[in-house]
Amino acid sequence: MTRTEKACLALASLLGAGLAANGLYMLASPAAWYFAVPGVTTTGPFNQHFLRDIGLIFVLIGVAFLLGVARPALRVTLWGAAALWLAGHALFHVWEVAVGICGTSALARDFPAVTLPALIAIALTVWAARHVTPAPSASSYR
Q: What is the structure's pLDDT at 60?
């Protein structure tokens, strides 16, 4: 395994663990999460059901990254789907600024937890697509 591959898999593991941990926090204690994360209280009133719904998404995309580390043949699909959601989430935050829902300061405030994970996920997915490990064929089990 090359140093680049080790670094990418370590980064994917950290991203996956962080996303899953965030989702578990949202599921276990939505009110604490709502008041702990900077800027969240300015996006609307507390909604336990909505936060838990989004918490489930974060757990799933975190698990997708962790599973992709362990299953190279599924990596592009798992990481790609997770990257699409994270990128959509980041673009939604940009849209909120563009239409005046949030001030431009929200972009800098949200960058570490919203935009950066999306950029990392996209970069990891591109790397994985360039280093695809083919799935085993049925004949390889004989």
A: 98
